[in-house]
Amino acid sequence: MELLIWVGAGLTLLGVAGLVWCIVLAMRARNSGLPDDQMKARLQQVVALNLGALAVSGLGLMAVVIGVILG
Known about the structure:
Blueprint: H1 2-31, H2 36-70
Helix pairs in contact: 1-2
């Protein structure tokens, strides 16, 4: 079960890194001065990445909790 904890911790860190990357992408889009329609399209892509990173992080946390409970 120790392996499950470490894999879950890695997934969680990967998800948090993805969330930080989404923040960077959103700040770049905001400072780029794009027209509204292009800004919306870019931010919609960032939202999709954000949801994916949040899902990966959540799966990692679930793996850690399951590993702790079973271990």
